[in-house]
Amino acid sequence: MAAVRSMGYAIVNATDLDAWYEYGTNIVGLQVAERTESRIRFRMDQKAYRLEINKAEEDRITHIGWEVAGAQELEELAAAVSALGYDVQRPDAAEIADRCVVDMVRFTDPDGTVTLELHYALHDSLDRFASPLGHVFVTGTGGAGHVFQLVKDVKAYETLYFDTLGFRLSDWIDMKGLKLTFTHCNPRHHSYAFGGGVEGLPQAIGHLMFEVEDIDHVGRAHDKVLNGEAQLINSLGRHTNDKMISFYMNSPSNFGVEFGTGGLLIDDETWTPTWYTDTKYWGHSDMVKLAADDPKNFG
């Protein structure tokens, strides 16, 4: 069965590219691959880019790129998604080339929140990756990181991600009365997590997660945020399910970024999902009082 392999990239609309340049380079430690008046592309490994920021009149995550193994897998998944009733489109050759992939299709997710792009063979850069802060990001088969999303129709997301795109269950957490579902498509504990189905909660991507190898790099970024270089959402802490030591901060486009290290890897032959009654062993204290229904406050 064809299945998604990893998170390839995220694409964001932003009202302030200069703020993103400073945030991406000086706090997250991303390398600039391209900077124009209309967009910035950031690298975190050998790939041509992992995060694209486009100048716009709004701030939001617009696209998530899910990588598949090749042409056959892309066609099988495109057909399966189309059979569910989604309007699956293939961009023209110029747009595919601009994405730096060999081929891709796209469709809008069940809540109409974000465009999902199935693609393969995201280009490698010919230049060695060099973080301006010396970071080594955890990517490889684990992809660019993970996505957490609050959704309206939980069943629709279960059908799409589990039954169609081939994600597997990692575990669940009970948080603030919500059942949060964590899923994986490679050894990274989760590449996609979601929760919702509660009237009144907004449907939005709450955060993206980026992981580095060194706890000192996480601590130094945490210090910068404590010094006011970005808004701290949750302080340094350790998660129960994926064991990651991380903190949460606001991005210039007003979604959360989790920045951490030491995330758990899953072996599907031995893994057994479980249920956690809290997201953390310690830390992750709310440092700013965001609205109770803000998706950045979840997971």
Q: What does this 3D model show about the protein?
A:
This protein is of the alpha/beta class and 299 residues long. The protein has 2 domains: 6-120, 2,3-Dihydroxybiphenyl 1,2-Dioxygenase, domain 1 (Roll); 140-297, 2,3-Dihydroxybiphenyl 1,2-Dioxygenase, domain 1 (Roll), CATH 3.10.180. The chain is built from 5 helices and 17 strands. It has a 10-stranded mixed sheet with strand order 16-9-10-11-8-12-15-14-13-17, covered by helices on one side. A 7-stranded mixed sheet has the order 2-3-4-1-5-7-6. A hairpin with a 3-residue loop joins strand 2 and strand 3 (39-43). It is globular, with a radius of gyration of 18 Å. The model has no long low-confidence stretch (mean pLDDT 95).
CATH superfamily of the largest domain: 2,3-Dihydroxybiphenyl 1,2-Dioxygenase, domain 1
Structure classification = alpha/beta
What summary fits the major beta sheet?
10 strands, mixed
Q: How many E strands?
A: 17
In the predicted model, the low-confidence regions spanning at least 5 consecutive residues are none
Distance between the termini: 30 Å
- In CATH terms, what is the fold-level topology of the largest domain? 2,3-Dihydroxybiphenyl 1,2-Dioxygenase, domain 1
How many helices?
A: 5
Rg over C-alpha atoms, rounded to the nearest angstrom? 18 Å
The domain tally reads: 2
| Name of the CATH first level of the largest domain | Alpha Beta
Estimate the helix proportion, in percent: 10-25%
Q: What average pLDDT do the residues reach? A: 95
Shape: globular
* N-to-C order of helices and strands: EHEEEEHHEEEHEEEEHEEEEE
- Give the name of the CATH architecture of the largest domain: Roll
- For the biggest β-sheet, the strand order reads 16-9-10-11-8-12-15-14-13-17
